[in-house]
Every structure is written in C-alpha cells, then in structure tokens.
Amino acid sequence: MAGPGRFLVAAGRRHAWPVVTLLALGFAAPLLTVLLFSFAEPKSFSVWGQPTLANYQTIFGETYYISFLWSLALAALTCVILAVICYPVAYGLVRIFGRWATLVTLAFTIPLFVSENLRLYGWVLFFGKGGVLLGSLKSLFGIEVDSVLFTPEMVVFGMVYVYLPFTLFPMTLGLSMVPEQLVEAAGDLGASRWQVFREVELPLAMPGIMIGMLLTFVLGVGAIAEAKVLGGQSIIPITHDIEIAFTYQQNWPLGAALAVLLMLVVAVLVLPVLRRFDLDRILGRR
C-alpha cells in the first residue's frame, strides 16, 4: 500500500501546482508588492530604492486614524444591525422552507448581479430632493421634507442594504445545522422558548452567524461606494484616503502603507475569531 499511497500523494501535488501558482500570482504577489511599496520613498514609483518608514510616520503623524475609526465603526454597526434583521428572517426561512431554505436564500443574491453603484444611485434618485419619495410627498400632500442624503445615517443604510445577502446566507446555513428534533426535545423537557434559543439554537447556529458577521465586517471596512454616493463628504473612510493617495496625490507608497495597516487591523480583529470555528463542519465536508 505504500507504493500506491506515495503515487497518490505525488499525483495530488502535481495537480495542486496550477492552484498554487494561481494563488501565488493572483493573491500573494499583489500583497507582497503593496507591502514593498509601503517602504518606498514617498511619491516614488519604484520599490528598488532605500527602504524607509517615512510613509508610516506620515500616517501616525496626521489624522488618518479618524478615517480608520470611521471605517471600523461603520462596519461594526452594520454587522450589529444586520444580525438583528437577518436572524429572524433566516429563522423563518429555515423553519418554513426547511431543506429548501438555502435555495430560497439565493434569491436574496439576485441584486448582486446588478452593479452596486447603479443600485446606490437608485437610492439617490429615491431619497433625493425632488426624487421619488420627497417629490411624491410634495406633489400629493404638499409636504416638503429636507433630503436625508449625504448623512452618516444614509451611509449606514447603504451598507446594510448592500451587505444583507452576505450576512443572511451564512446565518441561514448556520440555523439549518440546528436539528429540529433537538429543539423539540428541549421543549418537551420543559425548557422555555428563551432557554431553547439561548442554550440550543444560538450555540449550534453560532458558527454560521459569526461567519456571516465576519464576512460583512471585512467587506464593510473596505466599503467606499456607500460613503461616496450616499454620504457625500459627510464621512471619509480609510478606503477613500487610500484611493486619494493612489490617484490624485500620486503617492503610491503612502497608499500602500495605508492599505497594509488596514489589512493588519482587520487581520488582528478577524483571524482570532475565525480560528475558533471548524470551517469543514460548517461547509458540510465532514
């Protein structure tokens, strides 16, 4: 058996090379390039000069921390709001549609096939002064209301709207892993509805819930379209500063340093939580 076993291992390694190469060129290489650029001379376009910490000194010496805090706070608030919204929806999907819940949940991903910017500009037309909502109120009832656009609240609304499928789908998957017989047994043994939720449903569904919230948090930290389209200049997220550094300022090393710090902050917050969950069990591999 040793011979065939070694043959299978060798064949597996050979067949893995295309995937490893793709990951190296499409994932590791761009990240390494960004890391190297973060130590380049400010406003230079080459990584072959003398390494310097000037870009990081600029970041810590100015007010970029405000943008970091805005991005982290908006992402965290979006996760909390979506957890409150999506849990009852996911629970209803699982209990009503049963094993078809995942298929029904896919219907919520249909908006993902339309450009995010187009959907956000649709909300601009809806909430804008003279738009669908305010224009109808004025025409039909003579009520004039100030536009709610370009406020932090609208940025949160846009993020909740855009990232709802990313929370709902994993949460539905997590709740579908809770055996209905176990819930019924807990009720038969005298557990109240709150006890069943706290001690049976929530712990068993927690992996799916946390995966959805982590996915939403990571995407939310990197959000920029919601702040630009719905928020105007009321909020400046860190991704906006990164974009400005790479484009208008033509300061690639500064933009790279901001990107590296953002990745480090997200990794420090997300990886310790992610390591607590068995992804193979969540994905049904065993």
3D architecture notes:
The chain is mainly α. It has a single domain (63-282), classed as MetI-like (MetI-like fold). The chain has helices spanning 2-37, 54-61, 64-97, 101-106, 116-127, 132-141, 152-176, 180-188, 193-221, 225-229, 238-246, 252-274, 279-282. Helix 2 crosses helix 12 (252-274), helix 3 (64-97) packs across helix 7 (152-176) and helix 3 (64-97) packs across helix 9. The radius of gyration is 24 Å and the shape is globular.
Descriptive terms for the model:
globular, 286 residues, 73% helix, mainly alpha, 0% strand
For the biggest sheet, the summary is: none
CATH topology type: MetI-like fold
Mean pLDDT: 85
- What is the total number of structural domains? 1
Unreliable segments of 5+ consecutive residues: none
Number of strands: 0
Please state the overall shape, judged from the principal axes of the Cα atoms. globular
Decide which structural class fits the backbone. Answer: mainly alpha
Quaternary class: single chain
The number of helical elements comes to: 13
- The string of secondary-structure elements, in order, is HHHHHHHHHHHHH
